Amino acid sequence: MGLEIFWSGFGRLSPDVFPKCAQDKTTPTFVARFIFLASVCGSIMSGLLSRATTDSRFQLAATAVVSGGIVAAGLLSYQRLSQEKRVSKLKESIPDPSEERPVQKLTSLGAIPPPDKEDLRTEALARRAQAGDFDDELILEQLARNRVFLTPEGLDKLRNSFVIVVGCGGVGSHATAAFARSGVSKLRLIDFDQVTLSSLNRHAVATLADVGLPKVQCLQKRLRAIAPWVKFDLRLEKFDGNSAEPLLAPWGENGQKPDFVVDAIDNIDTKVALLKYCHDHQIPVISAMGAGCKSDPTRIIVGDISTTTDDGLSRATRRRLKLQGVTNGIPAVYSTERTAEGKAQLLPLAEEEFQKGTVGDLGVLPDFRVRILPVLGTMPAIFGLTVANHVILKITGYPCDYVESKGSGKTFDSVFSIVQANEERLVRAEPGAPVDVAVGLRITLSVADVNFLIEEMYRGRSAISSLPTGLFLMRWRKPQGSILQTTGEGEDQQKWTTLRMSDLVCMTKKEAKLHEQQVLKEGKSPEELYDAETLKRVEERIAEIKEYEKYR
């Protein structure tokens, strides 16, 4: 009862009663009231106690105890009232369910900002167009120049086509924009990433307002305003070998298979998985190689992947595909521009990052590039438009006669036959070997492996002299023990040797003949024949080949 009377009186106090506190504009009313009340209560208690006793020490102690209690009660009350005020503000910020407010759509990357009036108008127009409520004459007028160029029949093929773009960054966004503008009616976009501020220098349609938005949604949002009749199938996913089948599946209800797949990926593992799947399932595909560190547009060409040169991404992709049995048949857009002094290079990683621990943790995803690759914004656009141009010509059947890329022109069948013959001679030379021991003997390599070793690992040159002509493959060291392996008996018997790619070294015909005589027949070691520089060069190549053998 006493506390109720206390708080009732406390609430009725006003700044007029305590003018000194009220004069300080920074002092909250509650605090001013509390200070005044504490001093009043202290005076009252002091008066009461003075009447009860004349002991001054007792009066001081009692006054201190009572005043301390009042201060503690006041502080706790202030904290409680402050908390209630914050909770009240929080509750007020929560919208009433009955109120009509724009709802934010959710994706796996978070909420999408509510659309503005222009976005709502574009979405409404796109819904009408895809439902058939859009005059076809308007579409034909918008595509009039393409219709004249490709012929009406060619444009019809393009409008009925289904194209998949894997990777919607600099290259993929420009290709997608070209498809939508040119008349492709069904586009499936596959990318797990978001638009970033640093990607605006090369993205085809992204704006500052799109930063943080998934790339696939950004493309749909912007391209609907250009071609509202285009149907989009957005896949906010990372492509890999396990997801290939559903991501490259036919389109919707009609089961239309993709007319073309665009590889605009800059990760080697993912790139190889996509190209291998398309090659094995006979899905038309074109691969865009590295646009990073390139600046010469006159060096960009379209050619078979087997002829790609002077590009790290294409070289690594080509090697991995060859190890999986894919040597050609995939068109690629690549640059023949070579690196030189003063030109952009892959940026080194800061030393402090190495000191922190595993630098692989800095990547967006495992096995993704960690270091920054400089990119001139114009080059991905040229790559992407070149890719789109090729796809459009192929779908419509328009004649396309590219300048042929210079290939190696070398036949590797003869080199393969020589490797086979050398293995047969080694098997017959084994102690106690029967006369027909080499009959039916096979080796574990293929013509593609021979091609890979000479062209990719040894760069088309002898490891001994660096000469580029008359190349052979020869075992580097004499085998220890028997190299013959067998299984089964009689007609079911199978024979092969333990030969691996890392056992062979590229050399000229004369070098191979001398090496065979002194190493394989006389038993000398390579260290007895070659200088330290040659030995180091060969061992480095062998170590590199062993790394690639892991992918076989």
UniProtKB/TrEMBL annotation:
Ranges for region Disordered: 91-112
THIF-type NAD/FAD binding fold domain ranges (all copies): 145-412
GO biological process: cyclic threonylcarbamoyladenosine biosynthetic process
Pfam families assigned: ThiF
InterPro entries recorded: ThiF/MoeB/HesA (IPR045886), ThiF_NAD_FAD-bd (IPR000594), Ubiquitin-activating_enz (IPR035985)
A GO term, aspect molecular function: tRNA threonylcarbamoyladenosine dehydratase
Record localization: Mitochondrion outer membrane
Keywords, ordered alphabetically: ATP-binding, Ligase, Membrane, Mitochondrion, Mitochondrion outer membrane, Nucleotide-binding, Transmembrane, Transmembrane helix
SUPFAM superfamilies: Activating enzymes of the ubiquitin-like proteins (SSF69572)
Gene3D superfamilies: NAD(P)-binding Rossmann-like Domain
Extent of Basic and acidic residues compositional bias: 91-103
Presence of keyword Lyase: no
Membrane topology: Multi-pass membrane protein
Keyword Ligase among record annotations: yes
Gene Ontology CC, one term: mitochondrial outer membrane
Its biological purpose: Catalyzes the ATP-dependent dehydration of threonylcarbamoyladenosine at position 37 (t(6)A37) to form cyclic t(6)A37 (ct(6)A37) in tRNAs that read codons beginning with adenine.
Family designation: Belongs to the HesA/MoeB/ThiF family.
Identification of the protein by name: THIF-type NAD/FAD binding fold domain-containing protein
Organism: Cytospora mali
